[in-house]
């Protein structure tokens, strides 16, 4: 059976490597998916030695632990587990990334990393969490997991976590909301970011962008920007780093009868649309709101890639390359023969470019495991 070969290599990995143990493991529910079978849950382990022995014996294809802490994590009914609190979890994957279905695996990893960096910036800049509160992992698959650990969040209910998720995804922000806010709201958080986004745009207006918004009347808009608003050129007012620009952009000012409400609303709507696209982090919101969620175990292997669930220091994410750094060392410096089942497969792993053709190929073991795990090749 094809899975037998893959399981053998997973067994070798677990026999020679230790898992990363989350705090208070004895209060976490453990779940796993075997190579042949469905999810098994409600397991409990006392510490490093007991869970390492378990994975070496049973060799899971996927291994998980709960983001929640329980008094009795091995009870089968949630009410009997006695929930004590939970980390705040964010799962960033390709599932919600626009156009991901047309991307290569490497392009997906690069795009999801952008969203993860945005999330980290919001958690630290807008919510005030420090790097010591954040644990970051490559998921082993197509993205990243972010765990927030803080006394301020452990007992949050699902609704409160949903509010955080909505903020991260910039849900509900619209023009009508903006006109209800006073100036102070635009000094912090996501609205301050949007204010700066507008300033940056008007500091160096892209005429081609304006043409896409207004078509043949684009020049009328450029002339409009040279008009005056409260004694100052409109474009200079909008270019300022601070100040509530929305008073002009949302409603007509009585002292400026020449102001074009339609121009302002149309442009603001387009800028808001583009800002959201550039600034939001696409998270899997059900993961964030679920206070009983199971998440992948650090240093376990992902059953659909053979890559490690790898911890990453927050400061190192920008330069992190999972197709180099999440390959287990024991899968390097060894070759295997595989039978590629598709016409061609290309990828860059461990600093090398590979392009292999259908049929039998001799490849590094890590590439053999990867192609087997994603089911495009079998071991020979």
Strand order in space, largest sheet: 2-1-3-11
What is the CATH first-level class name of the largest domain? Alpha Beta
CA distance, first residue to last residue: 11 Å
How many β strands by DSSP?
A: 15
Query: According to CATH, what is the topology of the largest domain?
Result: DNA primase, PRIM domain
H and E order: HEEHEEHEEHEEHHHHHEEHHHHEEHEEHE
Main sheet: strands, sense, barrel: 4 strands, antiparallel
CATH architecture of the largest domain: Alpha-Beta Complex
The CATH homologous superfamily of the largest domain is termed DNA primase, PRIM domain
Main structural class = alpha+beta
Summarize the structure in words.
The chain has 380 residues and is of the alpha+beta class. It folds into 3 domains: 2-166 and 283-326, DNA primase, PRIM domain, CATH 3.90.920.10; 175-279, no CATH class; 338-379. The protein is 38% helix and 20% strand. It has 15 helices and 15 strands. The strands form 5 sheets. Strands 2-1-3-11 form a 4-stranded antiparallel sheet, with no helix packed on it. A hairpin with a 2-residue loop joins strand 9 and strand 10 (232-233). Helix 1 runs antiparallel to helix 2 (48-58). The N and C termini lie close together (11 Å). Residues 253-257 have low confidence and may be disordered.
